[in-house]
Amino acid sequence: MKRKSSIMVLLLIVLAVAALSGCGNNSNSAAEGNTKTNAAGSDKPYAGVVLRTISNPSNQEYFAKVNKEFQEKTGIEVQTDTVGNADVTPKLMNSFMSGGSTYDIFVMDVIDLPRFVVSGWVEPVDQWLTDDMKNEMLPFAKQALQYQGKYYGLPFASEYKSFVYNKTMVEKAGFSGPPKTWDDFIKYSQALQEKGIVKYGSAWAWSQTEGLVCDFIAIASSMGGKLFDENGNPVFNSPENTAALQLMVDMIYKYKVVDPASIQYNETNVLDAMSAGDIAFELNWGLPLTPLNDESKSKIVNQADVAPLPYTVSSATIAGPMSYAISSGSKNKEAAWEYIKFLNDTEGSKRQAIEIGMFPGWKSVYEDPEVKAGVPGLDKILEQAEVAVNRPQIPWYNEWSSKFQVELQNALTQKKTPAQALADAFAETQKIQESNK
């Protein structure tokens, strides 16, 4: 995520999307050690098993329907503790701290995987995961399931940011297609502004939140940068990363093609500016063409299109994938896997894409004719899915990100040069890394 405190809110939203049937107050839980009750060879070997998860009420109707079908097929009942947004994460953490048997299944953000693995809270699924499954996953969704050589869960809400441009405005400015490089981006933006088509070429979610880290990673990746090496050591004070942060600063102050209000904006503010026709370019989560083509919300209906993010080395974008995972304390791990597979394999993912607009993590789902027909614009953003990158896999990610956001803002507000901000972030990261050994 991503609105307000971007990715933390995204975690809560996607946990909310995982709302499953029931009110969550049934005492017959996995923690009480339900076991298989049917005889060997039965077509419902897990009949009588009850699985528990936690969520808030969002999309409850959809998941209630799916859970009913799952129970009819397998005999497994899925119950949910339905709580408010603010209570989901604390209750999940309490479950982990007390042995992890309260909830069998939970939704896990990519940034939480390393911490959960190191803490022993999540169960590997290598014994059930097939080679065909691995080969079908989009690269970023596949990576989001892996840590220290093992897999944890199946893709769910495999979201990433898409670069969007107003093709009508771009044509008015005299260009025949979207900008391909950052030099193009600046040139297009300047032309749009000089012709009075927009006041600023773009706006970005560069407030001191997780969204700022996400956008920096996307831009840095497009310029050949990376934040950590293969051993988890910081390398973000490299020339490529410094150039990326310098570009962000220059687009505000030197070229004046980015709305200065961006340093206070989140993704919702950016979408609002794009919908109003105030800007010609945006980078945003979800299916951005859907709200932009909504006549009740947008002034640029049928004007926007999706294209690869401009680049210096190669196009890239930032991903925010989630996965369904199994608690290491679950007493019904095999049944939990059956549910995760039913919900999130290619068929389940296809259904989610069509019925609730959930991003699939499987290549074949994007290519499915029914999905293309049911989710407008999905086929146009597959190219970006192929080059999406995840945030660093470090167990102390949240602690690091909060510090990194400060230094990125120091550069964007011109309190420090980009080089100094990244050097200070590097030093601070080394301290965090050392304290977590």
TrEMBL record:
The record's listing under PANTHER family reads: ARABINOSE-BINDING PROTEIN-RELATED (PTHR43649), DIACETYLCHITOBIOSE BINDING PROTEIN DASA (PTHR43649:SF12)
Keywords (alphabetical) are: Signal, Transport
Q: Which InterPro entries match?
A: Bact_solute-bd_prot1, SBP, SBP_1_CS
A Gene Ontology biological process in which this protein takes part is:
transmembrane transport
| Signal peptide annotation | 1-30
Family annotation (SUPFAM superfamilies): Periplasmic binding protein-like II
Record's family?
A: Belongs to the bacterial solute-binding protein 1 family.
Under which name does UniProt file this protein? Extracellular solute-binding protein
Instruction: Give the organism, scientific name.
Output: Paenibacillus rhizophilus
